[in-house]
Queue: 4 jobs
Job 1
Amino acid sequence: MKIAITGGTGLIGSALCQRLEKAGHACLIISRTAGAGRIVWDPAKGEVDRDALIGVDAVVNLAGKNIGQRWSDATKREIRESRVEGTTLLARTLASLETKPAVLVSGSAIGYYGSQREGELTEDAASGEGFLAEVCQEWEAATAPAEEAGIRTVHLRTGVVLSPDGGALAKLLPPFKAGIGGPIGDGKMVMSWIALDDVAGLIYHAIKTEGLSGALNATAPNPVANAEFAKALGGVLGKPSAVPTPAFALKLAFGEMAEETILSSACVLPAKAQSSGYTFAYPDLKPALEHLLT
């Protein structure tokens, strides 16, 4: 297959390309910069090389501004626009092609469900409240032109992606390696995590599985409390993990971003992934961390 990817040079996109190429598929990166194996686009200007998308079998849409910083009004606007404008442009362009790709796997996040949700959340759970929930709703809605044109569309609601090369785990490693890591606040927040290998595997599964469409939770089947995560990470690193980080300090440092990400709690389960036949390589936290860090 020939598969076009936005965000293809990011953490998830790079792992996905490696997975696809190892399986014998060709990856085309949709990027703002030209080059071999690239399709040029500029979402802010509403421009994309439409002709270069002709003959593509599948499209994976992972582009979006990093949310891991304090949110000013300008930052929040960039977070929203980088997802909604790019997805809208892509969906409309794909819908206009005479020969359309069979599937669009488009990014979303478990932020769709909001924070501090009780009970287990599967793909049929209602959306939550807050900035990220609103962004995710708009992000998913932006794929409508592709869906209406008959392109099978999957909304990948990604949890906390674990990799030593980026994201939350990479930020946690320095203090934990120094022996000063530990739980956040009371440690009771539920973390819906997933190993990077399984994110790439699940996207590939979504591309190949013809009956799969709509929301798809990209989370491991065994979420953990934050305190359990800290204990497991310290154990794998052979370091103590009893130094807590006060929740109020994170709120002071990062404001709304901390409340909706670092301090959020949601037990999100991958019901559709499992019912559609995906087998997680790392369903449990400790083996996942051992694989990633040792």
Job 2
Amino acid sequence: MKKTTHINKLTLLLSTVLLTTTSYADNQPNAEQFVGNFYGGLHGMYIKPDNERLTTADPNSDFDHGSGFGAEVGYRYSATTEFRFSRTELNLASQNTGFPSAKGDSTAFEALYFPNEKNLYLVAGLDALDIIKTQTSTTFGLGYRYYVNDRAAFYVEGKGHFQLSNYYNDYSSRIGFIYFFGAKSAAPVATPAKIVSTIATEKVEPVTAPLDSDNDGVINSKDQCPETPALNKVDENGCTVFTEETARMVLLVNFDNNKSIVKPEFFTEIKRMADFLEKYPHTSLVIEGHTSSQGSAAYNKKISQQRADAIVAILVEEFNVDGGRLSAVGYGEERLLDPANTAEAHAKNRRVEAKVEVTKKVAEKR
């Protein structure tokens, strides 16, 4: 029920923005005058957190709302597109009395798109939203600007924040003021005087520039990759230029003497490996079990296999990794890290190791 109320309030705000657009759209300066210029601004924010966000472990300690102030810096990349970085400090209040309030903040990087190069815009991006702890959310919303002159404008904006890992849905609105630095006022266009002549004029055919539909610098007749993204670097054929990047992950888990039980302190590292495997679903992993040189070779082979199997079990049962992507091999004492006959060397050698490496292509940016 609370989420529905939040959505209704956001819908009401965005409807108000749309109605306002029809009344004040004429005050928009020429969008081209802002291209290539930075702006700064101040804003106030009101946020309705997801009702599943809690201040304590008590299920009745959910947040009611938050409010605060912040600042922003933006850059007009083109007549239709802006990029904006903003930071907002928030005070968060609990839904029910008896539970503590909290501090929070929002650090967002977003793109603004003006479909008609006018006052109305769409906004989308990423927000490191700190409510009890920092978690990344995607944002999407709608806004409207009212220009008071050729450099300054007030704006109102409504957004949804959709948290990526815990599926929280938060809703916010904000009102602010921005000022463009370096923007030039549009020069008045002189109306040429009408010239009357009795001399016949020669008809001049207009010169048409070659088309470049995706604005990548390569004309359509030579572009072998139409519709490349505007920010991508392209070659002479108009195709995106890629570079290769390598992502690596290493897992190292140590064990007590004569044990194959995984200690809780290593679960965080195992989860990092599980997250890597989820991000790159076409990879597989060989988990290697090892022992110190103490004990018989046959026994060490057996317990090293048990240690490797224990890691596989945690990845499958605790973190839902497909077991078909995993294999376990026990090497016993065959691959010692430190051959010395000391307690430190033996502790170092009682381990499980796993390494995975992925090479991926990444588009170069202009």
Job 3
Amino acid sequence: MGLRKLLQKILAKPVTRLAERVSSSPRQQDVYASLDALLKCIREEAKEKGVTIPFDINTGKFVIFSDQHKGGGDLADDFVKAESNYITALQFYRQQGFCFINLGDCEELWENTPKVVMERNRSSLAEEARFLQTGMYFRVFGNHDLEWKYAIQQLQFLQPVFGNTLKVYEGILLQCVYNAKTYSIFLTHGHQGDKRSDGNAFSKWVVAAIWTPIQRFLEISTNSVSDSYGLVDKHNIIMHDWCVTQPDMVFISGHTHKPVFASLDHIDRLNKQLKKAEAANNVEEIESIKAELKKREAEYAGKTDTRVQPYPCYFNTGCCCFEDGDITGLEIEDGFIRLIKWENKDKISKRRVLEESPLFYLFDKLEEMKRETAPASPV
């Protein structure tokens, strides 16, 4: 066994745990306060913070990707394996007339300079820019591309690719009407209130100066197997619980790299499907689901915060930098919301629907939530 392979075996888990501890530490009160403030700004039309986009529930078409972490093309670049898959997906959605919402951590600026990233990723950036040419592109910044929040960096690095019409927001509010009532879909990256991610200079230094050189040498990716899934799960639970406090609203974020659909993560959904198959004594489906659970064992090892969320109000895009080159995202189309995966099979990118639900079902559930939590009328 060579030295690099030996060090990979010894150091991969502790180094990955260290990187995750440095990069994320959500506290409920901080997350709640930060998201409350951002949503209030957008609703009050603070245009530097975000934008409100009305859409028709039956005809609106949006695709939402996040967490590409486009890097410099070296061994620390988590986007490299997913690049062709991502470009194929964007070409498909542009041809189908989708509006593209890019939900943060689009570029990896903790590990690279903007100049290096923009030069290395000309092809994928050009595909994104084509959406903007028809007014169908919206970009949100995250913690790893926080520099795009500032006008000077936008002018120097983004405008040469996207032109001067590009706006970079912290959040977006989609609004539609159902049963004569307005419902909202709130989108932001999801790092808000996370003290180790929300613009924290120390975390950025640790990643750039310590983690990245080690990652390059050991060729370690943090996006295939998570040994501290409970931390990520905790963050998703906090964001779900915050959304429950917001009437008539669905919440979509990224940041955690773990896809969530209607408040259930992938393992929760598989266990729910397994119980249903067992109740129906569907032997073929039972075996299929058990095989999928076995496949996912390593990915979700150490999961501690298991809780079935009662209300389907929270969604997470996952990421576009999985180690196997797959990407996940969300579609809103023709009255449905879908969790989708683009897989690279035999060098051909294929779209796969993992979950879907009518939007009206989600909005009906929001009404049920309000009735169940409303104080009882005095007798």
Job 4
Amino acid sequence: MNVSATVAGLLADATQRLAEALQLDKREARIEARVLLAHALAVDHAWLIAHDRDTPSPVQQRAIADLIERRAGGEPVAYILGQREFFGLEFSVSPAVLIPRPDTELLVEIALKHVPEHVSSHLLDLGSGSGAIAVTLALKRPLARVLAVDISIEALAVTQANAHKLGAGNMHCAAGNWYAALGDQQFDLIVSNPPYIAAADPHLTAGDLRFEPGLALSSGHDGLRDLCAIIIGAPAHLSATGWLLLEHGFDQAAAVGELLRQTGFEQIFTARDLAGLERVSGGRWPGAAD
């Protein structure tokens, strides 16, 4: 028996390949290798352990090798698998959308605190991408009507597919640049995780970001262009009790807070993520009932 062709051997080889190619520590490389092997073999983690001495077929071995080489070339695991977990839900993803990240769960958690569970409300997600925010809000607040907006038709197709797959029948889509497609619609809550990386930021040419849509990542020379557009345009589309909530870069809280103040928002706040970084800011439009 060719030991290197067993599940255990293939896992060891894949771990070594990813560790060297991506400069990962062995533990992280092994986790990624295990996920990719399980995907290629259409099995779960427990099966890999129980069958570590099995020898996959030549076709399966080629499938494993192909996935490992794609990852070794830098392609994100989420794109290879075609899915990513967010807020306990499995979202389909493609290179047309950003990969949902745990950081954004803070934005959803805060949004849910501002949307009563047993009251009908109208919510807007600007720049929906995969639909992770909009679909999660729709599922967690079934009495709400959620509108997901994105300028990318390809991204909206992913949003709609996720809404259908996960059963978010109270979520709908509209194509347009921020508020352009909304007419005079008003909302009780506007939420967005917009592009906020400066155009010249070197992170855009490194790691997973190399493979993600640039339109959804960078925003002008300082990363504030789209945040500014969303804040300035929000008052025309917020109800008297409306809140605007925004995810932003860890070093942009002061600038976003100042933009909110200059626009006339009140009760402005910034929330920190689990790492202690300021990642979400928001404010309430004046005239709201106390």
